[in-house]
Amino acid sequence: MEKRWTVLDYDREIVSELSAEANVPPIMAKILATRGLVNSEAVSAFLNPQLSDLHDPSTLPDIAKAAERVRQAAMSNQKVVIYGDYDVDGVSGSSVLVQFLKLLNMDVSYYIPHRIDEGYGLNVNAIRRFKSEGIQLVITVDCGINAVEEVREAANAGIDVIITDHHEPGIDIPDAYAVVNPKMPRSQYPFRHLSGAGVAFKLAWAIAQTLSPGRRVSPEFREFLMDALGLAALGTIADVVPLIGENRVLAKFGLEALAVSRSPGVRALIESSGLDGQRLASHHVSFRLAPRLNAAGRMAKAVTCVELLTTNSTEKARIIAEQLDQSNRHRQETQQQVLDSVRRRIKTDVDLDNDLVVVLADEYWHPGVLGIVASRIVDDHCRPTVLVALDEGIGKGSGRSIPQFNLFDALAECGGPLESFGGHAQAAGIKIKHNDVEAFRTALNSYAAERLNFDELVCSLAIDVEIEADELTIDLVNVIDRMQPYGEGNREPVFCSMGLRLAGTPRLVGKDDRHLAFYVRHGNASFRTVGFGMSDIYDSVSTSEYCDMAFKARVHEYNGRESVQLQIADIKTRK
Predict the structure, then answer these.
(1) DSSP string covering 325-357, please?
(2) Phi-psi bin for 234: left (phi > 0), alpha (psi -120 to 50), beta?
């Protein structure tokens, strides 16, 4: 679908003053101003985050109680299990706590539930297994805040549970030994947006404080925490929490820690991703490192990821990293197959003139990739999408939405046909019986018809600055890159230029020729341009002379030479 471009507004007087006072180029001042950074002090704090900006963990709910309970477990040589979610946030945060408790010579193991067989969060069967193994303390990572029944089961089994989570609490809070979550009611913690790995990192920090002579942790613990910043950054960036405030600090210094990490698992992961020796950026985590870790949870068992990130064996790390690489390739192939199938089904089974929400089910779809595919369909058609993999009577589905439509509220209202559901405004998961899919589709579209209209189903693209392309120099792009790390809440700047001349012959590149590469000219400047996953516009580009383009600008190095490369966000061609 054609996107509606919206160039963000800014106060020209403020931009002029900001450029002078903060000593940044006017184009960068425009970008900063549209993000609410309108004075030199705010700009300086944003561009120069410090480790000292991290908040002391002491004001997190129940953190002191949790740290003391771990100290008691260490003193009594109790068996402890770290129970994490199967996504990157969960496995990276779990790895932080596993490694830290091993540093304390504790009897610690870890458990990551199987995405398809067990589903999200704590489960009763796992609790019963822990009882049989003599586990006395369970620490959750990135899950547990709504596990009321499971925590009760643990208490009955004589097992204490410390919940570390960052998801919104429900009405009923589990009666756990401690609940460490910045979003708890009456929380005094000054930053609500930590990831699960961020909360786990804070617990490790608090335990280190408990075991150190003063508030400053011992040198050994400090060295560990500095290295663990890398795993905290992995989870923070991969979980798409806002990269503002404390998360910006964790991401910036964590990326630096990842690049120099001595962990065999981290090194193997970076090498298998083709990133060895590179300065790591947030997009490397999002598109190289995180997909390999997530692939294990989607296609196999995520517990392998914790094994990778906590091993001391270089050889073992390389073997696991290769396995993850293979799983990721399998995930990519499966994802493409499902995406192609969904797109075919939309042409034959969905009435886009009348359906505001796409709901489809199929017995041949892999449930582990449905969330990614649903996101692609949202991009294609700019309407909420729920996809269901049918299997032995019960279907498991994933949904993604648009900003104008709260999917969680919709499921709560139309949940009659559902066996269960969970999630938030823009993403959710469901379980549903085969025979109830059509009733669910009808109910969800009826609900949407009362809250959406077709005029709203237009994808919008926010443009930071309209620019003459020949203004883009290597120096300017490098200066703007001081705004990294990019992510949710601090997206990579998007520019647009009008009337670019299409130059040379476009080429299809990459695996299966999925990507498009060509050159554009403006004035005396020429730029290599890449459209990832845009092979479908090859004919349009080939037969056009000019284009208006929205893009991201990056410095590209090839054979020792640097140049500005444009990455297409959207393009409108014309003769």
Answers:
(1) HHHHHHHHHHHHHHHHHHHHHHHHH--TTT-SS
(2) alpha
CATH fold, domain 57-325, is inorganic pyrophosphatase (n-terminal core) (3.90.1640)
Residue 516: exposure state from Cβ atoms within 10 A (0-12, 13-18, ≥19) = buried
Q: What are phi and psi of 105, to 5 degrees?
A: 60, 35
Residue ranges of domains in the chain: 4-8+461-574, 57-325, 350-456
| For residue 485, cis peptide bond before it (omega within 30 degrees of 0) | yes
CA dist 308 and 321 (Å) reads 7
Q: Closest by alpha carbon to 362, among 284, 437, 269, 280?
A: 437
Tokens found for residue 551: 């893009």
The CATH number of the structural domain formed by 4-8+461-574 is 2.40.50.460
Confidence (pLDDT) at 302: 86
Residue 9 DSSP label: P
Query: Strand 385-391 vs strand 561-574: parallel, antiparallel, or unpaired?
Result: unpaired
* CA 97-99-103 angle, 5° bins: 110
> In this predicted structure, what is the pLDDT of residue 202?
98
| Bridge partners of residue 432, in order along the sequence | 395, 418
Q: Which CATH architecture has domain 350-456?
A: Roll (3.10)
Residue 139 parent element (H or E): strand 137-141
- What's the whole-number average pLDDT of the chain? 93
Nearest Cα to 57, choosing from 181, 167, 156, 170?
A: 181
Mean pLDDT, rounded, for 160-171: 92
Q: Tell me if residue 562 falls in helix, strand or coil.
A: strand
Pick 492 or 170 by higher pLDDT: 492
Q: Does the pLDDT of residue 1 top 70, yes or no?
A: no
- DSSP state at residue 287: I
AA letter at 406: N
Tell me: pLDDT of 427 over 90. Answer: no
Structure tokens at 396: 């498991």
Q: Label residue 19 by pLDDT band (50, 70, 90).
A: very high
pLDDT in tens, 67-126: 999 999 999 999 999 999 999 999 999 999 999 999 999 999 999 998 778 778 899 999
Residue 546 near residue 573, CB atoms below 8 Å: yes
